[in-house]
Design goal:
- The protein folds into two domains: 6-122, Arc Repressor Mutant, subunit A (Orthogonal Bundle), CATH 1.10.10; 149-285, Rossmann fold (3-Layer(aba) Sandwich), CATH 3.40.50.300.
- 29% of the residues lie in helices and 18% in strands.
- It is built from eight helices and 13 strands.
- The protein has helices at 47-58, 66-73, 81-95, 149-161, 175-186, 208-215, 225-233, 249-262; strands spanning 21-24, 27-30, 35-38, 41-42, 105-108, 112-115, 119-122, 164-168, 194-198, 218-221, 238-243, 266-272, 281-285.
- The radius of gyration is 27 Å and the shape is elongated.
- It starts with 20 loop residues before the first strand and ends in a 31-residue tail after the last strand.
């Protein structure tokens, strides 16, 4: 997130023009709607406290001097710093309702105030109320899935008892096709749908986390991107499909373990040429499709002199 110059805020009424959504801990901040949500429940804040929170969150990690905060929140008005401390006190009390929120705003002696929780920004404006329609970014199958009904049934059932499932097999055997078929079938069972992440184009394992964040349309605004990602996903019921993990298998396995340990509503299905071997990983090996039975009578085969062979009966 780029740093905002205080004078660009204008009056305190200017902040609602920000259509972004910010997530930290169990909270979501929607400046445009002037709402702070805790697990989809609105948190009551005074107008001044809300404006202070917006400024601090937009510049998370930066120390903002007290006089700068007052200039933004009380434009054109001279106020004593005690007014700022009162509003910060009420804001801290409201944030204390969420995990880690009690220490979200740090006072830096002789310098100012800093918002220290990891913050995730979404460029897509989120609705204030939970969307009852499942959401996903799953690619549509280009062809009909043939001969994999048993595998799809088994993998769909496995997600109810296993939180990490790996579809294993050599390249080109149809792992992604099977995983997507399972995800399309199961995504309606998750309140927040499903997300598909394709790692096939990654050349560096350290890009795994950024690729996952981009699947949610978010930018991680923290030196600790995993913490920021966890903040965005906390409280969600979601199926995540990690596709083509073999060349980033170690990083993908660690990330999957972290997500599952911190987010009880998450299920992960991965595809890879080798097992992720993460904690609790349940692997399913995709076999080659059986060849279709040949018809009882062979086709006519023309010889070089265009004379057909005799039609003969064959048995399979």
């Amino acid at each position: 997130m780029s740093e905002t110059v205080p004078t660009q805020f204008g009056t305190a009424e200017a902040s609602p023009s920000n259509g972004l959504t910010y997530a930290f801990g169990a909270f979501r901040l929607l400046p445009k709607q002037r709402m702070l949500l805790l697990a989809d429940e609105s948190v009551q804040l005074s107008s001044r406290a809300f404006d202070i929170l917006v400024v601090l969150v937009e510049r998370a990690g930066s120390v903002i001097p007290a006089n700068e905060l007052m200039h933004v929140v009380w434009p054109g008005v001279t106020v004593d710093e005690v007014n700022l401390r009162v509003q910060l006190g009420s804001l801290r009390k409201a944030l204390a309702r969420g995990e880690g929120g009690r220490h979200a705003i740090k006072t830096v002696p002789l310098q100012g105030y800093c918002f220290v929780l990891p913050v995730v920004r979404s460029d897509v404006e989120l609705p204030a109320q939970r969307n009852s329609e499942p959401q996903h970014n799953l690619p549509l199958p280009l062809t009909q899935v043939v001969g994999r009904d048993d595998a799809i049934d088994l993998l769909s059932k496995s997600l109810t008892s296993h939180r990490l499932v790996t579809v294993i097999g050599p390249g080109g055997i149809g792992k992604t096709t099977v995983a997507l078929a399972v995800a399309h079938r199961c995504q309606a069972e998750f309140a927040h749908g499903a997300r598909f992440v394709d790692f096939s184009c990654l050349s560096e394992p350290q890009l795994v986390i950024g690729m996952l964040a981009s699947a949610f349309g978010i930018g991680v605004l923290s030196q600790d991107p995993v913490a920021g990602l966890l903040a965005h996903l906390r409280g969600k019921q979601l199926l995540i499909v990690l596709d083509t993990c073999e060349h980033v298998v170690e990083v993908a396995a660690r990330l999957a373990e972290t997500l599952l340990a911190e987010l009880p509503g998450i299920r992960i299905m991965a595809t890879s040429r080798e097992a992720l071997r993460g904690c609790g990983d349940w692997g399913y090996s995709v076999g080659r499709l059986r060849r279709a039975r040949r018809p009882p009578w062979s086709a006519v085969i023309l010889l070089p002199n265009d004379q057909p062979r005799k039609r003969c009966r064959t048995f399979s």
